[in-house]
């Protein structure tokens, strides 16, 4: 299957394009990296450049852990140049009217839509997400641009009644300047458009450092931005290896040019960057890790709750920040629920090549992720947990494939109660009272998402208000949407992305008092 060929530094993989038959597969097969969306360089000030130190790093294929391509490994000096390019671009971009910025976002979104199969294929290539799921991810990513495009002309200031009779007070919103953005591997399209879309709609310029594991989607998005007529320096991409990323972080937190640091990733790295940024009073948006509780009360409809678990727990093979992590089920229904959930899982998932349009469950993104999941499951088994795997998950689906799995008999002393799983393990924990389950659900430093299923309206309000998280899904396992304020409390972060709150985050309010 693999016929890797080297061209301009990119190793290309021949994928079974005939199964889906989109032009994208042909393009990859024809090996035309620079005419399409593939490139292995960074994008600074409107130019495609390599690292000044001439370094490269490898990206690996989650399907078989083989080397996929080499990407420019930029360092601190390169990051500084990118910030300077963004600062220069800001001087003119800040004079653009909302309507002009709106038109740019529209063109970018249209270019992405026109290349959606290509972009989805790149996402599948570097993340291992099944192609059909990648198409959904590209749609979700484009939704953010559609939303910010529509909203930006409706972002107004206020007039405020002044206490002094002779004064008149009003506010305007202004762009902040250069936004430095850092994104994780698990959502390489939507996390980019969610940050960059809001920032540039609001009149800022951006330097983005994508994750070393999945830089190709960000590069492709920059290619489409360029094609859409994005002015040089408004969007800059700085690719870097795992080893060099900390020096990019240092530049982002120590350079006076940066006015806002927008980070999505783990709580540990977010905590470090937040503290560093605070030394210079750089505003931050921190979208960090989760450990979502999912509660099934005894009055819940079991079919609906099981579908909710499947949507929340197993999306992207369990690798999203809002995935259910601890599934609490009322003691009186836990056995019935496990049965319903298992039946639904058996009829929901199709395994096989991620390029097959029917396949809806893929491998984990890396060997590292696989090892972590193995450790959580071994810990659960050693403490009395019982493993129930999906019936259809037989056969060889690659070294990083882990089947969707239910663990019954889970208990609060298991690792998953404290540590984000980030994989397809559904741990079922029994509970007896509402008070007990709310206390258990809140017994975590994370506070990103929570879910629960009940048919009781009074319980619905009480539990929704009592859960300590930025987002709550009630009878709903899929809460992610471009229009909602997305974000967490406690160690899950600071600030909101998505919806109108995101545009507020990327602007400063200026209050103007006029004495008559
Ligand atoms: N809250 C959200 O919206 C959200 C969304 C997606 C993922 N996440 C979280 O992200 C985590 C998974 O992503 P990950 O493993 O890529 O996280 P990570 O923190 O290891 O890496 C995230 C990004 O930070 C970079 N990075 C790492 N150390 C750095 C440093 N010292 N300075 C500058 N950059 C640095 C990485 O290269 C990557 O680009 C999970 O915890 C998940 O819950 C949160
Ligand atoms: N892509 C996710 C974010 C966390 O991984 C989402 O927006 O739902």
What's the short story on this structure?
37% of the residues lie in helices and 21% in strands. The chain is an alpha/beta fold and 516 residues long. It has two domains: 4-289 and 495-509, 3-Layer(aba) Sandwich (Aldehyde Dehydrogenase, Chain A, domain 1); 292-445 and 449-481, Aldehyde Dehydrogenase, Chain A, domain 2 (3-Layer(aba) Sandwich), CATH 3.40.309.
Map the helices and strands:
Elements: E1 5-7, E2 10-12, H1 23-30, E3 42-44, E4 47-49, E5 56-60, E6 67-72, H2 76-93, H3 98-114, H4 116-127, H5 131-151, E7 159-160, E8 167-175, E9 178-182, H6 190-201, E10 205-209, H7 216-227, E11 235-237, H8 245-254, E12 258-264, H9 267-279, E13 283-287, E14 292-296, H10 302-314, E15 324-330, H11 334-348, H12 367-382, E16 386-389, E17 405-408, E18 425-431, H13 434-442, E19 449-453, H14 457-466, E20 471-474, E21 493-494, H15 499-505, E22 507-515
Parallel strand pairs: 9-10, 9-12, 10-11, 12-13, 14-15, 14-19, 15-18, 17-18, 19-20
Antiparallel strand pairs: 1-2, 3-4, 5-6, 7-8, 8-22, 13-21, 16-17
Helix pairs in contact: 1-4, 2-8, 3-5, 3-7, 4-5, 4-7, 5-6, 8-9, 10-11
């Amino acid at each position: 299957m693999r016929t890797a060929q080297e061209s301009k530094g990119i190793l290309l993989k021949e994928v079974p394009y005939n199964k889906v038959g989109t032009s994208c597969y042909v393009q990859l097969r024809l090996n035309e990296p620079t005419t399409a969306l593939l490139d292995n360089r960074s994008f600074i000030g409107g130019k495609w450049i390599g690292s000044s130190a001439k370094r490269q790093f490898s990206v690996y294929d989650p399907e078989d852990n083989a080397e996929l391509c080499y990407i420019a490994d930029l360092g601190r000096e390169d990051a500084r140049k990118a910030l300077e390019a963004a600062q220069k671009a800001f001087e003119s971009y800040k004079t653009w009217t909302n309507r002009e910025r709106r038109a740019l976002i529209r063109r970018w979104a249209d270019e992405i839509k026109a290349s959606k199969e290509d972009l989805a294929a790149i996402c599948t290539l570097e993340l291992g997400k099944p192609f059909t799921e990648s198409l959904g991810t590209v749609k979700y990513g484009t939704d953010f641009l559609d939303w910010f495009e529509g909203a930006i002309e409706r972002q107004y200031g206020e007039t405020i009644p002044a206490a002094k009779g002779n004064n008149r007070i009003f506010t305007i919103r202004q762009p902040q300047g250069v936004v430095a953005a850092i994104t994780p591997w698990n959502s390489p399209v939507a996390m980019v458009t969610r940050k960059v879309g809001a920032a540039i709609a609001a009149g800022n310029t951006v330097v983005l450092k994508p994750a070393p594991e999945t830089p190709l989607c960000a590069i492709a998005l920059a290619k489409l931005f360029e094609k859409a007529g994005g002015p040089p320096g408004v969007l800059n991409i700085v690719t870097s290896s795992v080893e060099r990323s900390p020096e990019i972080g240092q530049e982002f937190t120590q350079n006076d040019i940066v006015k806002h640091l927008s980070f999505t990733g783990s709580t540990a790295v977010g905590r470090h960057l937040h503290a560093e940024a605070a030394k210079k009073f750089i505003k931050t948006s921190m979208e960090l890790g989760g450990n979502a509780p999912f509660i099934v009360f005894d009055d819940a409809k079991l079919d609906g709750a099981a579908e909710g678990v499947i949507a929340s727990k197993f999306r992207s093979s369990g690798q999203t920040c809002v995935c259910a992590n601890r599934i609490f089920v009322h003691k009186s229904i836990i056995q019935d629920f496990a049965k319903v959930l298992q039946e639904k899982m058996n009829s929901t998932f199709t395994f096989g090549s991620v390029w097959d349009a029917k396949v809806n469950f893929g491998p984990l993104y890396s060997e590292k992720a696989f090892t972590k999941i193995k450790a959580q499951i071994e810990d659960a088994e050693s403490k009395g947990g019982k493993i129930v795997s999906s019936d259809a998950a037989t056969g060889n689906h690659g070294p990083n494939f882990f089947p969707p799995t239910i663990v019954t008999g889970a208990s609060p002393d298991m690792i998953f109660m404290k540590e984000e799983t980030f994989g397809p393990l559904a741990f079922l924990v029994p509970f007896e009272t509402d008070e007990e389950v709310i206390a258990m659900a809140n017994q975590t430093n994370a506070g990103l998402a929570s879910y629960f299923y009940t048919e009781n309206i009074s319980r619905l309000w009480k539990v929704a208000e009592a859960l300590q998280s930025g987002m709550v899904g009630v009878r709903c396992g899929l809460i992610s949407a471009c229009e909602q304020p997305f974000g967490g409390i406690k160690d899950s972060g600071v600030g909101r992305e998505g919806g109108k709150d995101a545009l507020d985050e990327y602007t400063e309010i200026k209050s103007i008092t006029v004495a008559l």
